[in-house]
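Quick sanity check, SRPBCC domain-containing protein:
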Amino acid sequence: MNPKVLRIEKRINAEPSKLFRAWLNAEDFSRWFLSGEGIGIESVTLDARPGGKFLINMTLDGKILPHEGEYIKIEEPTKLVFTWRSQATENRDTLVTITFQEIFDDLGKNTNDSRQKPKTLITLIQEELVTDIQVKMHHHGWTCILEGLDSWMGEYLKK
């Protein structure tokens, strides 16, 4: 068995700290964490501390699909590391690392000046996937989730 690695990057117009916190607040999390069409969130429980566990009960066609794991590292506002286990991983632990990097312009200046809004590059890496099907399913799911975060953050920042 040769473990596979998935890597996804997404640029979002928001500060790293705001995006980071959206991953750790259960109420906010349940508003944007949707992995595809027809997927809903039944409940979210987050014990956001190293060693703390989380449970995300997604719904599809009337069925509850639990996704669970444990936080390994929480380095606000730059890095989250946690295990991820679900039916789609054959109930095996995988490892997810998410980094939040402020994007700088070509001159090396912070983009958070008076003319530009802050921007963040989110990089999501999932390790220990076993099959190409798992990689494909998780690529689709995480891409939709990051799109949901982008959309929700855009609405959140308008308030």
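Posting the structure with no commentary besides this: The domain at 4-158 is CATH 3.30.530.20 (Alpha-D-Glucose-1,6-Bisphosphate; Chain A, domain 4).
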